[in-house]
């Protein structure tokens, strides 16, 4: 090797050392910078003919584990989902309160039933009547308060969706902008490494709100999709979430795939190609904070509202509804006559029959629906009883025709009851084929008078005056949001004595406990069936039990859900922390390693400088010798 070759090698070594020192300096300076990925120099050996081999720095490499990074992003989305669910469900438990404490549904119900029990021991006592009335008002108010708490949480989720959309949009735009800046830059370019750090940070931010799948093409462009395949970011292009808030939500503010009927904020995403997609209807997101808020707003908290609405509805109907068995028709064909006179919208007829072919007992509930736009009623698969909507005021002929069509395969026959029955009597019998047997029938009607001569009492009403009858219209069921509107009948507030007096002709005897005994029994001992919309039971096997049983059951379900959400949150936190530590072990700056590298570079720099000094001395000696 000649002196010129040695000099060239030494100079290239110094340049390589300087580049490496610059990278070490950058690593040390950014050791506390969030998202900074440690860099190492890329050096290659270059053969230069007569000058031998020299070192060349071609750029930098970012030291990271791509697999761990991908897993970390997936789990970050899971953590965003789990955090939000646990946070809101914990707040929901605060709305319900601690069992046994004042200001809870359980305590309010117990206080009311205790007051009714006391009233039965002193039915004529005005003070006992006043106490019972006050306890009823406290229970209604507690249902109102609980509704406001649940709807406040839904409104918070609605507001959070708007904030999350803005943050996600900012992250997607930043990623798209960085993609544009990276076009034409080599992946080894130091400036590209800085941009990729920034892009990774933006992707990490995005992964907290939505589930992401990231691919990088040959031109170093990050393409981001949700796990359902919706593109969020492409080469220089970004999708954009749009959210139009509905403001404060009420129990009747619910999502509908038809925007004109939806009562909540519309959440859409405009794709890079310009098309718009309904995020909820198309299940665009499956993880992250946005997915959690959507589930809370449209499912979890809606079901919580359904649970207390069902409590309010069952309690109201239990005290005010009177069920009368149908009159037996000996036949053949055998069956029952059912009087529909006085039935109000939402009142029902229940029929039980046996399919003799399979020896299976079935139930049918006829619901008085006066709004034709609400028909036909929708039944879940396997629903028992099956509900059929029909207008009871449409005349027996029209009612029978509609029911014969709806139950054409049941081997039942509906008709207007012949004389001397009234024009409001419906007859149901088997079809005389022996393939079905009608076992029982009954009609349930809401008592509207405080002194009807019956122990039933319209104690709770919808808003203070309107009766709760379970009416169904095109806009939904009267039960929806009832817990927020329920109040004690204003007529009863004006005259609490009607808690005991149920007849004025003849006048209820002083000390008669018929009504108070009935009210107490209905609230404590009677067994009811509850809608599967509450999350208890199923369409084919609905949950049954007393009102107290039902209350305890759904509170227990909610408590367990909150506990499980907290456990999931804690578990997800451990997973994220573990993956973050594993990722940092490769990608973060290790100052000890950098100091070791610095010492090596100092030694290499000194060695190259010494070579240059020796070469210079030798060249000087040669020049002097020639002179």
Query: Which ranges are low-confidence, i.e. pLDDT below 50, for 5 or more consecutive residues?
Result: none
Q: What's the total count of β strands?
A: 23
Q: Give the radius of gyration.
A: 38 Å
Lateral strand order in the biggest sheet? 9-17-12-13-14
**Global mean pLDDT:** 90
List the total number of helices: 12
- Main sheet specs: 5 strands, mixed
Percent range for β-strand residues = 15-25%
**Share of residues in helices:** 40-55%
**Quick one: overall form?**
elongated
How far the N terminus sits from the C terminus, by CA atoms, comes to 24 Å
Structural classification: alpha+beta
Describe the structure.
The chain has helices at 3-29, 66-96, 105-121, 126-182, 190-209, 288-320, 396-406, 482-485, 490-494, 514-524, 547-587, 591-626; strands at 39-47, 53-62, 213-216, 222-225, 231-233, 240-244, 266-270, 276-278, 321-325, 327-329, 335-339, 348-355, 360-368, 386-390, 412-416, 425-430, 436-446, 460-462, 472-473, 476-477, 486-488, 528-529, 544-545. Helix 2 packs antiparallel against helix 4 (126-182) and helix 4 (126-182) runs antiparallel to helix 6 (288-320). The strands form eight sheets. Strands 9-17-12-13-14 form a five-stranded mixed β-sheet. A four-stranded antiparallel β-sheet has the order 10-11-16-15. A hairpin with a 5-residue loop joins strand 4 and strand 5 (231-233). It is an alpha+beta fold and 627 residues long.
Quick gist of this model?
The chain is α+β, with helices and mostly antiparallel strands and 627 residues long. The protein has helices spanning 3-29, 66-96, 105-121, 126-182, 190-209, 288-320, 396-406, 482-485, 490-494, 514-524, 547-587, 591-626, and strands spanning 39-47, 53-62, 213-216, 222-225, 231-233, 240-244, 266-270, 276-278, 321-325, 327-329, 335-339, 348-355, 360-368, 386-390, 412-416, 425-430, 436-446, 460-462, 472-473, 476-477, 486-488, 528-529, 544-545.
